[in-house]
Amino acid sequence: QKEVEQNSGPLSVPEGAIASLNCTYSDRVSQSFFWYRQYSGKSPELIMSIYSNGDKEDGRFTAQLNKASQYVSLLIRDSQPSDSATYLCAVNGGKTSYDKVIFGPGTSLSVIP
Amino acid sequence: DVKVTQSSRYLVKRTGEKVFLECVQDMDHENMFWYRQDPGLGLRLIYFSYDVKMKEKGDIPEGYSVSREKKERFSLILESASTNQTSMYLCASSPISVSYEQYFGPGTRLTVT
């Protein structure tokens, strides 16, 4: 059974701090990795995708991928109260586009003003 | 911007009714998906389709069927609604590539009484 695991949280950080969200996955052949943000009562919104080992930066967000350790993380710099949401890690389960994306359970982030 | 729309934001149906949930995307995406999301259970894939008239079962297809007669439209059908199908239903689409980035509609909150 392919799995994606995340700490459920809640993770609380003060405004302006760095929030660090972590995700591990079980399937070594996974190729594509995504972070979604979901505000309460809303649908998930894609915020980052990463396909190669290393870091990928987009504004205040940095995704980090380590395939050897089967680990992907999301760093949010200068956290704002508007970043308070649940963050879902998602992993493409295989080598082809017909393979399913597997979502983790999500980590709840609360940014305290 | 990718736009995925769903026919209803909120829906209340009675047990035993046949329920149709419609999803339309405007980005010419090949892949479309139906998920349900429940507290503590995360996102679970019901069905997906990678081409017109093609469909594949997801993790929880029991009690559901789907229809994809046109590329932009993917319908979820509850043949005989039951109270355990009360949930948030999310439709998503993605282009046919290994990146598999999914774009979600706003969701339909279905209550079966």
**Roughly what percent helix of chain A?**
under 10%
Shape of chain A: globular
Structural class of chain B: mainly beta
- How many E strands of chain A? 11
Helix content of chain B: under 10%
Residue share in β-strands of chain B: over 45%
User: Which residues of chain B sit in consecutive blocks of at least 5 with pLDDT less than 50?
Assistant: none
**Poorly predicted ranges of chain A:** none
For the termini of chain B, the CA-CA separation is 37 Å
Number of helices of chain A: 0
CA-atom Rg of chain B in angstroms: 13 Å
Helix-strand topology string of chain A: EEEEEEEEEEE
List the helices and strands and how they pair.
The complex is a heterodimer of chains A (113) and B (113).
Chain A: E1 4-6, E2 11-14, E3 19-25, E4 33-38, E5 45-50, E6 54-58, E7 61-66, E8 71-76, E9 85-92, E10 101-103, E11 107-112
Parallel strand pairs in A: 2-11
Antiparallel strand pairs in A: 1-3, 3-8, 4-5, 4-9, 6-7, 7-8, 9-10, 9-11
Chain B: E1 4-6, E2 10-13, E3 19-25, E4 31-38, E5 42-49, E6 56-57, E7 64-70, E8 73-78, E9 87-94, E10 103-104, E11 108-112
Parallel strand pairs in B: 2-11
Antiparallel strand pairs in B: 1-3, 3-8, 4-5, 4-9, 5-6, 7-8, 9-10, 9-11
Tell me about this structure.
- The complex is a heterodimer of chains A (113) and B (113).
- Chain A has strands at residues 4-6, 11-14, 19-25, 33-38, 45-50, 54-58, 61-66, 71-76, 85-92, 101-103, 107-112.
- Chain A is mostly beta strands and 113 residues long.
- In chain A, the strands form 2 sheets. In chain A, strands 2, 4, 5, 9, 10 and 11 form a 6-stranded mixed sheet that branches.
- In chain A, strand 9 and strand 10 form a beta hairpin.
- Chain A is globular.
- Chain B has 113 residues and is mainly β.
- Chain B is 0% helix and 53% strand.
- In chain B, strands 2, 4, 5, 6, 9, 10 and 11 form a 7-stranded mixed sheet that branches. A 4-stranded antiparallel sheet of chain B has the order 1-3-8-7, with no helix packed on it.
- In chain B, a hairpin with an 8-residue loop joins strand 9 (87-94) and strand 10 (103-104).
- The radius of gyration of chain B is 13 Å and the shape is globular.
- The N and C termini of chain B lie far apart (37 Å).
- The chains are: A mainly beta (113), B mainly beta (113).
- Chains A and B meet through strand 5 and strand 9 of A and strand 5 and strand 10 of B.
